[in-house]
Amino acid sequence: MPKHQPSSSHDSSLSHSAPLATASGAPGRTRFLLELFIAFIVTRLPFVSIPFKWLESYFHELSHGLATIISGGVVSHIELFPNGAGLCFSQGGWPLLIGFAGYFGAALWGYLIFMFATWPRGIRVSFAILGGAVVLTILLWARDLLTISILVTLAVLFLLPLKLKQNQFLASGLRVIALMIILNALASPVVLLGLEGLGDANMLAQQSWVPAWVWVGVWLVTSALMLYLCWRRVDGAAQRRSNKIKM
Questions:
Q1: Distance CA 146, CA 116 (A)
Q2: Neighbouring C-beta atoms of residue 129, cutoff 10 Å
Q3: What's the pLDDT score for residue 1?
Q4: Other CB atoms closer than 10 Å to residue 166's CB: what's the count?
Q5: Based on CB atoms within 10 Å of each CB, which residue in 72, 127, 145, 220 is the most buried?
Q6: Residue 86's closest CA among 146, 44, 166, 26?
Q7: Using CA atoms, how far apart are residues 16 and 100, in angstroms rounded to an integer?
Q8: CA distance 150 to 163
Q9: What does the mean pLDDT of the chain come to?
Q10: What's the pLDDT score for residue 5?
Q11: Cβ(137)–Cβ(78) under 8 Å?
């Protein structure tokens, strides 16, 4: 959530005998559903889910920061907390864009990362870019030891897989990460309904006179849309492979 000083805010395949394998980079339908199930389970596991909650929080606050810069403001620093919460400290910018960007941006990042993971030759590049973005965030906007520690963990999460040679494993892992970000972005806004006077939705309600529950609804719809677009990418690739086989 942003914090404007002094106020705050927050299967198919080319081979019938290997239905999970793909040549285009997009997983088959069965593999996608399996990866979605794994992502859902991991986001519900105690302790194991914590680093992945940090991912959603990171992209949430990063989106606030980018929206601040795009709308003419200045970002001072960001803070991340062990429970998955975060703050973006900034001055200036357009409050409506900044406030809306958090949950919308997290879901959009999840979708973009999923698309990266369907680019066979760019898997390692994608991990490197994401890891580099986290490192850059540490240098620019991390000030306290806790935030730095969390961001270092996320950087390792992206950069360590580069040591692995199995490209298919890397792609699958990146897709699962992307789906976890989207699922967390889908679940997080609901919590705002119980926060009186706090959170991005309430800040937007004060700025726009549009009720907080409407903003929460928009975020839920956009997050669900990103998940649907991931499925469309998978389903479209599966149909194209099926048509090639029939030909």
A1: 29
A2: 13
A3: 55
A4: 10
A5: 127
A6: 146
A7: 45
A8: 21
A9: 85
A10: 44
A11: yes
Block residue for tokens 């285009």: 24
List the domain boundaries for the chain. 2-10+25-191+211-240
39-58 pLDDT per residue, tens: 999 999 988 888 888 999 99
Adjacent-strand bridge partners of 74: 91
Query: Could you count the other beta carbons within 10 Å of the beta carbon of residue 232?
Result: 10
pTM of the model: 0.84
Is residue 113 classed as helix, strand or coil in its secondary structure? helix
End-to-end CA distance of the chain: 52
The owner of tokens 């990866």 is: 35
Query: What is the pLDDT confidence band of residue 9, given thresholds at 50, 70 and 90?
Result: very low
Residue 102, both tokens: 């958090």
Contact partners, residue 165, CB within 8 Å, separation at least 6: none
CA distances from 245 to 12, 19, 20, 29, 191 (A): 10, 13, 15, 16, 47
Task: Write out the two tokens for 182.
Answer: 């989207």
Return d(Cα 74, Cα 87) in angstroms, integer. Answer: 14
Q: Which residue's structure tokens are 């404007």?
A: 4
Which segments of the chain are extended strands (E)? 2-4, 74-80, 86-91
